[in-house]
Amino acid sequence: HQADMAMYSAKSEGGGYRFYGHEIDRHQQARRAIREALESALQENGLALYLQPIVDLADGRPVGAEALLRWPQASGEVLAPDSFLWAVHDDPLMERIGRWVIATGVSILRAWQSESALAEMTLALNVSDWELRKKGFCESLDQLAGGEHPVNYARLHFEIVETASLSDRKEIVEVLTQCAARGISVYLDDFGTGYASLSHLSEMPVNGVKIDRRFVDQIDRASQSRSLVQAIIGMAEPFGHAVVAEGIERPEQTAWLRQLGCRYGQGYLFGRPMPADEFRAWVTAWQGQDELPA
Ligand code: C2E
Ligand code: MG
Ligand code: MG
Ligand code: MG
């Protein structure tokens, strides 16, 4: 059913795509197949969090990582979330995947805390607003992060996507306020692509924004892109928010972002999403470089 999965995920990305007749059946079948396979993957510890470096654009120094969900297949292929999360969006399975992500993220942070090379690194976890609104979100987080070697919440970041469905604003603000009280930083992900960026910035207890890749993509090639990024940074600055640019692939993009006042970035130019062990080696290698004579 892998071909199906690829096909249906491509369609689902269009957003406005409509299914007719037998296609509806095939869509439902694909969805069911993905859910069942994900269910077993969860039970058999078959999911993975890959880590992508987030760097200070001033010198390329890693400051942390974003955890990105991956689903390794028996074939050796590693599926990215866009090819399977659509099938569980409004499903309790999404909640369980979210819990797995948080539990795994917390254990990564806990391991880092005892290693000098990694102790200062932040770890950003993507959380859906659906998960956030579940009762007891912070309490179950505390259970995972507490104990004999509690996780330093100052190292934990959450990334939430601004969408129209952030309509249950009151509940979201409540839980984000609880996160803030613990010292967790919250970033608005894919910033600028949603419906109500400005009102989110003024109403939500957030600490930073992530500029979506689509704005960064042409920043070194089109002046309109630069104006857009400048406007986005201009929106975040008065609130004192940190700004992270996504999807940096060329040095010229870094130069422009720096000039426009964007402090942090991530993208293939610096590092691709990689397994946790590789990230550890990547950071260590970077720090080794740092000590070389100029
Ligand atoms: P996102 O949070 O905006 O993550 C950034 C996406 O950009 C990632 O895609 C990353 O691999 C990709 N990316 C990073 N640098 C570059 C670059 O230089 N060039 C290009 N072309 N792409 C780059 P990915 O891993 O496929 O994730 C897609 C989306 O899936 C994420 O977007 C996030 O919204 C969602 N997601 C990922 N992990 C989780 C998770 O654990 N929980 C939830 N709820 N959503 C997740
Ligand atoms: Mg993200
Ligand atoms: Mg993003
Ligand atoms: Mg995105």
From TrEMBL:
Q: Where is the EAL domain?
A: 31-287
The name of this protein is Uncharacterized protein
